[in-house]
Design brief:
The protein has 405 residues and is an alpha+beta fold. It is 32% helix and 27% strand. It comes from Desulfofarcimen acetoxidans (strain ATCC 49208 / DSM 771 / KCTC 5769 / VKM B-1644 / 5575) (Desulfotomaculum acetoxidans).
Length: 405
């Protein structure tokens, strides 16, 4: 990152960027909770997305992917409570109806509306509640509506997840804001959750797509909670150009700065998702350094973060480093086990693949913190990757044993 690059945190989430409004309302889908959100740009946007790699894809994913084939959008509508997945032709009809009603209410073209859903699979949307909720939501669209929208897309999340940053492109202030939901069915296989990112920067759609895909690989694709990849996962990025910067249409220093800021937004949201894993008590960061290739580093970091044996050891504050090297060993990464060093926080527990006489007391104290850092040094190259996950607790089973109730 450039030394001149200054990133300022600002409030507002997805509405921090100029020209965007949003809302989150109670449509009655989930009784007394906010459950319907809209993001709307007064200006048409360049837009792009990445989507779940699950072979079973919900109707909203299918429709949004189709709509974004031309790289433009102006509004997004998201409901929580029902995934609108595995509902046959009715699911697509409901997604289309939702978008057409919103488009009419906003007086924009229907193909400019993107749709997302999250919740229980295999149950039809309560369309009467959603359609009535659209009228309420449109009436409450506001530049201050970002936090309400972030709350409305939650399912088993315990906290809403949002961030916004301000920086300059060639002297022009621009903002990137985002919100996400995710707590369960989180695994590094594409987007792993729902994420919505807005910016008032002017960016050519081809560069926007390149930036998002590159950043997702390093952020949302590096988080794991439980090894499940949902039918509804997507991340959308909308750029309306309201900041007035000269459009980014070629790679260079400004594009690099934009990607850096976008990465910071996505890292923040990724860590919030991982730390809010269902039943979790700790955020776990696994960093692999000095790997021969980026792919080796990513494979090892993700596999260690996803290991149930590692996750349960962290829950119990047990410094069982053998589980860490074991997970790295079956990850598919290429490395020499006889060179590996492992650290839990500042406590080195293994050197050259062998045990050290480390402080069990200090290691246990490190593993008892809300944020736990694991460092694995392959000592075979120069590449690095970081993955984020959480511990595995009794409450995960409690939550998922009664998810539909």
């Amino acid at each position: 990152m450039s030394k001149e690059f200054k990133l300022e945190l600002v409030p507002g989430g997805v509405t921090a960027a100029s020209g965007f409004t949003a809302c989150g309302v109670r449509a009655g889908i989930k009784n007394d909770k906010k459950d319907l959100a809209i993001i709307y740009s007064k200006l048409p946007c360049s837009a792009t997305g990445v989507y779940t790699t699950n072979k079973v894809q919900a109707a909203p994913v299918q429709l949004t992917r189709q709509r974004l084939s031309d790289g433009h959008a102006q509004a997004v509508i998201i409901n929580s409570g029902y995934a609108n997945a595995c509902n046959g032709p009715q699911g697509l009809r409901d997604a289309l109806k939702t978008s057409s009603v919103l488009a009419e209410s906003l007086n924009i073209q229907e193909n400019q509306v993107l749709v997302a859903s999250t919740g229980v699979i295999g149950q039809n949307l309560p369309m009467d509640k959603i359609l009535n909720g659209i009228a309420l939501a449109v009436s409450q669209l506001s530049p201050e509506g970002g936090p309400d929208a972030a709350e409305a897309i939650m399912t088993t999340d315990t906290v809403s997840k949002q961030i916004a940053v301000k920086f300059e492109l060639s002297g022009v202030p621009v903002v990137i804001g985002g919100m996400a939901k995710g707590s369960g069915m989180i695994h590094p296989n594409m987007a792993t959750m729902l994420g919505f990112i807005t910016t008032d920067a002017a960016v050519d759609v081809h560069l926007l797509n390149k930036a998002l895909k590159s950043v997702v690989e390093k952020t949302f694709n590096m988080i794991t909670v439980d090894g499940d990849t949902s039918t509804n996962d997507m991340v959308l990025l909308l750029a309306n150009g309201a900041a007035g910067n000269q459009q980014l249409d070629s790679e260079g220093s400004d594009f690099e700065l934009f990607c850096c800021a976008l990465c910071e937004v996505c890292i923040s949201l990724s860590k919030e998702i991982a730390g809010d894993g269902e039943g979790a008590t700790k955020l776990v960061e696994v960093k692999v350094i000095n790997a021969a290739t980026v792919n080796d580093a990513r494979l090892a970091a993700k596999t260690v973060a996803a290991s149930n044996l590692v996750k349960t050891a962290i829950f119990g504050a047990d410094a069982n480093w053998g589980r860490i090297i074991c997970a790295a060993g079956y990850s598919g990464a290429d490395f020499d086990p006889g060179k590996v060093d492992i650290f839990l926080g500042n406590e080195q527990v293994a050197k050259d693949g062998k045990a050290l006489d480390f402080s069990e007391e200090n290691a246990s104290e490190i593993l008892s913190q809300k944020e736990v850092k694991i460092l694995i040094d392959f000592k075979t190259g120069t590449e690095t990757a970081t993955a984020w996950g959480c511990d595995l607790t009794y409450d995960y089973i409690k939550i998922n044993g009664s998810y539909r109730s």
